[in-house]
Amino acid sequence: MKILVTVKRVTDYERKVKIKPDGSGFETEGMNFVPNPFDEIAVEEALRLTKEHGGDVVVVSIGPNDATQQIRQALAMGAQRGILVQAGELDSDAVARVLQKLVEKENPDLVLMGKQATDDDANQAGQLLAGYLGWPQATFASKTEGLESAEEKAQKPGVKVADGWASVAREADGGIETIKVQLPAVITTDLRLNHPRFASLPGIMKAKKKPIEEIPVASLGVDITPKVRVLKYEEPPARLAGVKVADVDELVNKLKNEAKVI
Amino acid sequence: MSAAHPHYTEEHQAFRQSLRRWVDREILPHVEAWEAARAFPRELYAKAAEIGLLGMGFPEAYGGVPMDPFHVIITCEELARAAAGGLSAGLMSHSIGLPPVAHLGSEALKARVIPPVLAGEKISALAVTEPSGGSDVANLRTTARRDGDHYVLNGQKTFITSGMRADFITCAVRTGGEGMGGISIVVVPGDAPGLARTPLEKMGWWCSDTATLYFDECRVPAENLVGEENMGFMGLMLNFNNERLALAANAWAFAKVAFEEALGWAKERVTFGRPLIQRQAIRHKLVDMQADLLATQAFLEAVAAKMKAGEQPIADICMLKNHAVACMEHCAGDAVQILGGAGYVQGAKAERIYRETKVIAIGGGASEIMKDLAARQLGW
């Protein structure tokens, strides 16, 4: 089976992002960029699925030329080839339309995506893509057996594929819901689907030689007019110092009249 | 560090990023418990093999992966974040145990010994030092006499890293006359009859096992001879440069970890109404440490660049090792001083690093030997 996996270049979640003084975006100077962690889970799942069923994993990123670094990381994990759609900042709808074009070109049996990117947490592109393609979708894929299970230790996929259908365990509020979708489909991955492997040194060396196709977004003929406009970024208000109260009466009084929470 | 760094390529950076996360997940949460238990789990070798850590620098045909000296520096730097030299030394003991086999061994021996070690299934150790002497390799006393299809070993080896657990012990023995011309190397299997081992308690490096090995009519198959009989001395010397570069990189990396801990503490700790870092006595100390670290790093990278270009700058490597050890002694000592009581109790990285300065000053060529060798190499 052929699986298309998305990998978004996002700011390193271990470092604090700085907002530009005019609130128009983030400071990128000195920032470290990493693959979206949910996408790494998608890459891992794709690699496990193709190991079990055969086939290829194609990695797609939409972003600046430097996003080849994140594609290379997925190639170092074991994916076969990469596609970079060279573009500036796109909203979820434009991303879904660009991906739709690529899916029509590549004809994968499955699209695997992180459920959301850790930079804007929009959680829309996968659902929109399935809608535009008219494909079934299964979002927030998880692992029924859990991350401490023997299945996970044996690096078995959590998404079960058989006879042209995929069975997907989804995390719902009350527990785990399992649904079946007919392939081709779009599946988005949640945190507890797998532990992604680390890119190994031999993998990194091999990834150097794997092909990455570069496609300027304009050449795809997709309408990428933004539907969402970012007005401004700002820091959440700094936490104020606490106060000591003398007794319960004062506490209740403050909660009622100052914080107005009771 | 940007991708345009003169020594570190994009692939180096990718390796660093992967290794850093591996250390975060597989080592940092457990290292205190391993130190207390005086051992890290054997399974860690297989995990290290998965990310290519064990294969570094060995032939691809045997499961290795090509590398250059900057991969060594990256590895030392990232593993040093655990501030446990014993972990670095124990996990990587094959980096001194296997090279004689890789350089001189027969195809059959290489195919039997190297792949399982690089896969993390077997552990490799190097045994050269004896109770009667370490630096004076040419005069080692453990003997091996040929008896049919076997060599029969008698003698002792000591201070052997991974000595308790090793499945393959690359052992220097005397098969011929006196001096360097009578030395051979044999790979002693961990279960060889006549081999006994006892563990050693140490000042530092707690989570690595260190052993004394006793050979009492110990029988080793003759096909475990590495290269030719009485030609072993060169095989031992061949890897000394790489080992010493790694030791220098380790010393510098541990110095940096101690410095960073002290710097963080100096910013946080308030005495007499002001953070420590605003006190001249402390900020000057920290600047001196930082300057020492930067100078050592520059020296380290300059030597690594020469080695990457194919040179073997022996005098430079000797002086670098001593310089890096001095940097570690300086930074570890001052870090503990800045941390005060918090630096003296267990739990502080600086406390452990301080206890582990001597092992790098002594192991892999003691500072005094390094100076003598450097002077000789310089033609003095």
Describe the protein in words:
The complex is a heterodimer of chains A (262) and B (380). Chain A is built from seven helices and twelve strands. Chain A has a single domain, classed as Rossmann fold. The mean pLDDT of chain A is 94. With 262 residues, chain A is of the alpha/beta class. In chain A, strands 1, 4, 5, 6, 7, 8, 9, 10, 11 and 12 form a ten-stranded mixed sheet that branches. Helices cover 50% and strands 15% of the residues of chain B. Chain B is built from 16 helices and ten strands. Chain B has a four-stranded mixed sheet with strand order 1-4-5-8. A four-stranded antiparallel sheet of chain B has the order 2-3-7-6, with no helix packed on it. In chain B, helix 10 packs antiparallel against helix 11 (280-308) and helix 12 (314-339) packs across helix 14. The longest helix of chain B has 29 residues, at 240-268. The radius of gyration of chain B is 21 Å and the shape is globular. The interface between A and B is medium-sized, with 16 and 20 residues.
